[in-house]
Specification:
Strand order of the largest sheet: 1-2-3
Number of strands: 3
Largest sheet: 3 strands, mixed
Strand content: 15-25%
Mean pLDDT: 84
Order of helices and strands: HHEEHHE
Oligomer: single chain
Number of helices: 4
Number of domains: 1
CATH topology: GMP Synthetase, Chain A, domain 3
Length: 99
């Protein structure tokens, strides 16, 4: 007789299939970004996905994109402290709508 699967395994499989893990990770990254960016940039930017160690950040306008690019080094340092598991090594800024 086959043994029943532990409920933890069933829930993990369900979360993986439904994509809930990505949603949760995106929420954590958004919160981490807001802490790293601070009040000045946090409300006017939105983090996207991390691909190959590069975090794509959407900014509200081109002036802000240029201004925040000058802070890239400090932001990377804060992100490394707040989210070392993400291994973010670079930031890419693009202008777009902030929801």
């Amino acid at each position: 007789m086959a043994r029943p699967k532990p409920i933890a395994n069933i829930l993990a499989d369900l979360m993986a299939r439904r994509g809930y893990g990505r949603v949760q990770a995106a929420g954590l990254l958004s919160e981490t970004w807001r802490k790293a960016a601070g009040d000045e940039f946090g409300s006017q930017t939105r983090p996207g996905q991390v691909r190959r160690g590069v975090l794509e950040v959407t900014v509200g306008n081109s002036i802000l994109a240029q201004e925040i690019s000058f802070q890239k080094g400090a932001l990377l340092k804060k992100l490394a402290e707040l989210a070392p598991d993400e291994k973010i090594r670079d930031l890419r800024f693009r202008v777009g709508p902030i929801e």
